Automatic annotation (TrEMBL):
PROSITE patterns: IQ. PANTHER family: IQ DOMAIN-CONTAINING PROTEIN K. It holds the Pfam family IQ. It comes from the Eukaryota. Gene3D superfamilies: 1.20.5.190. InterPro entries: IQ_motif_EF-hand-BS, IQCK. This is IQ motif containing K. CDD domains: IQCD (cd23767). The gene is IQCK.
Amino acid sequence: MANGDKKSLWEQVCEAFEAEQLSPPHGKWREKDPTAVEIHENPATGYLRKNVFPMLLPSLEALLREGQKYGWFERGKSACLPYVFLIKWLYNHNPQRQGQGHLNFCDIPFVKDFLSNHPRHHIPLFLLLSEEEAAVLIQSFWRGYKIRVRPDVQELRQWQREQREYLDIRRTVAEFWRRQESRLSLMMMNVPESAPMMTHEA
Protein backbone atom coordinates (compact mmCIF):
# COMPACT_ATOMS: atom_id res chain seq x y z
CA MET A 1 0.00 0.00 0.00
CA ALA A 2 1.40 3.41 -0.94
CA ASN A 3 2.21 5.97 1.70
CA GLY A 4 -0.56 8.26 0.45
CA ASP A 5 -3.14 5.49 0.84
CA LYS A 6 -2.01 4.43 4.31
CA LYS A 7 -4.92 4.59 6.74
CA SER A 8 -4.63 6.53 9.94
CA LEU A 9 -4.68 4.87 13.32
CA TRP A 10 -8.17 6.23 14.00
CA GLU A 11 -9.49 4.74 10.74
CA GLN A 12 -7.94 1.39 11.62
CA VAL A 13 -9.61 1.44 15.04
CA CYS A 14 -12.98 2.32 13.49
CA GLU A 15 -12.69 -0.48 10.92
CA ALA A 16 -11.76 -2.98 13.64
CA PHE A 17 -14.76 -1.88 15.69
CA GLU A 18 -17.15 -2.19 12.74
CA ALA A 19 -15.79 -5.64 11.93
CA GLU A 20 -16.64 -6.83 15.44
CA GLN A 21 -20.26 -5.71 15.19
CA LEU A 22 -23.02 -8.21 14.36
CA SER A 23 -24.03 -8.30 10.72
CA PRO A 24 -27.61 -7.16 9.89
CA PRO A 25 -30.22 -9.96 9.68
CA HIS A 26 -31.28 -9.21 6.11
CA GLY A 27 -28.07 -8.42 4.32
CA LYS A 28 -26.77 -4.88 4.10
CA TRP A 29 -28.36 -1.96 5.83
CA ARG A 30 -30.49 0.17 3.61
CA GLU A 31 -28.49 3.21 2.55
CA LYS A 32 -30.03 6.55 3.42
CA ASP A 33 -30.38 9.41 1.05
CA PRO A 34 -27.50 11.79 1.85
CA THR A 35 -29.58 14.79 0.78
CA ALA A 36 -32.25 13.93 3.30
CA VAL A 37 -29.61 13.80 6.03
CA GLU A 38 -28.41 17.27 5.12
CA ILE A 39 -31.94 18.68 5.04
CA HIS A 40 -33.06 17.23 8.38
CA GLU A 41 -29.72 17.52 10.20
CA ASN A 42 -29.96 18.80 13.74
CA PRO A 43 -28.21 22.17 14.19
CA ALA A 44 -26.25 20.84 17.16
CA THR A 45 -25.14 17.81 15.14
CA GLY A 46 -24.06 20.07 12.28
CA TYR A 47 -22.06 22.26 14.63
CA LEU A 48 -20.29 19.24 16.11
CA ARG A 49 -19.55 17.82 12.68
CA LYS A 50 -18.17 21.06 11.27
CA ASN A 51 -16.45 22.66 14.27
CA VAL A 52 -15.79 20.08 17.00
CA PHE A 53 -15.04 16.75 15.33
CA PRO A 54 -12.33 18.09 12.96
CA MET A 55 -10.36 19.02 16.10
CA LEU A 56 -11.49 16.28 18.45
CA LEU A 57 -10.87 13.25 16.22
CA PRO A 58 -7.16 14.05 15.60
CA SER A 59 -6.70 14.54 19.34
CA LEU A 60 -8.21 11.11 20.05
CA GLU A 61 -5.95 9.59 17.41
CA ALA A 62 -2.93 11.25 19.06
CA LEU A 63 -4.15 9.92 22.41
CA LEU A 64 -4.20 6.36 21.03
CA ARG A 65 -0.66 6.75 19.71
CA GLU A 66 0.50 8.07 23.08
CA GLY A 67 -1.14 5.13 24.83
CA GLN A 68 0.55 2.64 22.53
CA LYS A 69 3.89 4.39 23.01
CA TYR A 70 3.84 4.22 26.81
CA GLY A 71 1.88 0.99 27.19
CA TRP A 72 -1.26 2.42 28.76
CA PHE A 73 -3.34 -0.46 27.43
CA GLU A 74 -1.02 -3.15 28.83
CA ARG A 75 -0.66 -1.72 32.35
CA GLY A 76 -3.57 -1.52 34.75
CA LYS A 77 -2.53 1.93 36.00
CA SER A 78 -0.51 4.77 34.54
CA ALA A 79 0.88 8.06 35.82
CA CYS A 80 -0.39 9.87 32.73
CA LEU A 81 -4.12 10.50 32.72
CA PRO A 82 -5.86 10.59 29.31
CA TYR A 83 -7.72 13.82 30.05
CA VAL A 84 -4.42 15.52 30.90
CA PHE A 85 -3.03 14.59 27.49
CA LEU A 86 -6.21 15.72 25.71
CA ILE A 87 -6.29 19.09 27.48
CA LYS A 88 -2.65 19.75 26.63
CA TRP A 89 -3.03 18.59 23.01
CA LEU A 90 -6.21 20.58 22.34
CA TYR A 91 -4.80 23.74 23.95
CA ASN A 92 -1.50 23.59 22.07
CA HIS A 93 -3.21 22.82 18.74
CA ASN A 94 -5.84 25.52 19.08
CA PRO A 95 -5.94 27.44 15.75
CA GLN A 96 -6.12 30.70 17.71
CA ARG A 97 -2.70 29.96 19.22
CA GLN A 98 -0.83 29.56 15.94
CA GLY A 99 2.77 30.72 16.21
CA GLN A 100 2.87 30.36 20.00
CA GLY A 101 5.03 27.85 21.82
CA HIS A 102 3.68 24.65 23.31
CA LEU A 103 2.95 24.68 27.04
CA ASN A 104 3.07 21.89 29.56
CA PHE A 105 -0.14 20.89 31.29
CA CYS A 106 0.64 22.71 34.53
CA ASP A 107 1.65 25.90 32.65
CA ILE A 108 -1.71 26.34 30.88
CA PRO A 109 -3.33 29.45 32.46
CA PHE A 110 -6.74 27.99 33.37
CA VAL A 111 -5.09 24.77 34.59
CA LYS A 112 -2.70 26.76 36.77
CA ASP A 113 -5.61 28.67 38.30
CA PHE A 114 -7.53 25.46 38.98
CA LEU A 115 -4.54 23.67 40.53
CA SER A 116 -3.85 26.62 42.82
CA ASN A 117 -7.20 25.90 44.51
CA HIS A 118 -7.31 22.12 43.94
CA PRO A 119 -3.78 20.65 44.14
CA ARG A 120 -3.22 17.31 42.46
CA HIS A 121 -2.60 14.23 44.58
CA HIS A 122 0.91 12.85 44.90
CA ILE A 123 1.66 10.30 42.17
CA PRO A 124 3.18 7.06 43.56
CA LEU A 125 6.69 6.23 42.41
CA PHE A 126 5.67 2.95 40.79
CA LEU A 127 3.49 4.89 38.36
CA LEU A 128 6.32 7.24 37.41
CA LEU A 129 8.82 4.50 36.63
CA SER A 130 8.97 2.63 33.37
CA GLU A 131 9.28 -1.16 33.38
CA GLU A 132 13.01 -0.89 32.64
CA GLU A 133 13.63 1.60 35.48
CA ALA A 134 11.61 -0.50 37.93
CA ALA A 135 13.55 -3.63 36.89
CA VAL A 136 16.87 -1.86 37.55
CA LEU A 137 15.75 -0.79 41.05
CA ILE A 138 14.49 -4.28 41.95
CA GLN A 139 17.62 -5.97 40.66
CA SER A 140 19.95 -3.58 42.50
CA PHE A 141 18.02 -4.10 45.75
CA TRP A 142 18.17 -7.88 45.34
CA ARG A 143 21.91 -7.85 44.62
CA GLY A 144 22.50 -5.68 47.69
CA TYR A 145 20.45 -8.03 49.84
CA LYS A 146 22.35 -11.10 48.63
CA ILE A 147 25.64 -9.37 49.47
CA ARG A 148 24.54 -8.23 52.94
CA VAL A 149 23.45 -11.71 54.06
CA ARG A 150 26.87 -13.25 53.39
CA PRO A 151 28.62 -14.35 56.64
CA ASP A 152 31.82 -12.41 55.96
CA VAL A 153 29.86 -9.25 55.19
CA GLN A 154 27.80 -9.74 58.35
CA GLU A 155 31.01 -10.00 60.36
CA LEU A 156 32.37 -6.83 58.77
CA ARG A 157 29.16 -4.92 59.50
CA GLN A 158 29.26 -6.06 63.12
CA TRP A 159 32.85 -4.82 63.46
CA GLN A 160 31.87 -1.47 61.91
CA ARG A 161 28.97 -1.18 64.34
CA GLU A 162 31.26 -1.80 67.34
CA GLN A 163 33.79 0.73 66.04
CA ARG A 164 31.10 3.37 65.75
CA GLU A 165 29.93 2.69 69.31
CA TYR A 166 33.53 2.89 70.59
CA LEU A 167 34.13 6.17 68.80
CA ASP A 168 30.87 7.53 70.17
CA ILE A 169 31.97 6.66 73.72
CA ARG A 170 35.33 8.38 73.27
CA ARG A 171 33.64 11.42 71.78
CA THR A 172 31.17 11.56 74.68
CA VAL A 173 33.93 11.34 77.30
CA ALA A 174 35.98 14.01 75.55
CA GLU A 175 32.96 16.29 75.39
CA PHE A 176 32.30 15.74 79.12
CA TRP A 177 35.84 16.74 80.15
CA ARG A 178 35.79 19.72 77.83
CA ARG A 179 32.67 21.01 79.54
CA GLN A 180 34.17 20.42 82.99
CA GLU A 181 37.31 22.34 82.08
CA SER A 182 35.20 25.17 80.69
CA ARG A 183 33.17 25.39 83.90
CA LEU A 184 36.36 25.35 86.00
CA SER A 185 37.86 28.17 83.95
CA LEU A 186 34.75 30.28 84.45
CA MET A 187 34.85 29.68 88.19
CA MET A 188 38.49 30.73 88.40
CA MET A 189 37.78 33.91 86.46
CA ASN A 190 34.99 34.87 88.92
CA VAL A 191 37.20 34.47 92.05
CA PRO A 192 38.23 38.00 93.36
CA GLU A 193 41.98 38.70 93.61
CA SER A 194 41.72 39.79 97.30
CA ALA A 195 40.16 36.51 98.40
CA PRO A 196 42.31 34.74 101.02
CA MET A 197 44.14 31.69 99.81
CA MET A 198 43.45 28.54 101.78
CA THR A 199 46.55 26.81 103.12
CA HIS A 200 46.94 23.35 104.43
CA GLU A 201 48.77 23.11 107.74
CA ALA A 202 50.96 20.16 108.38
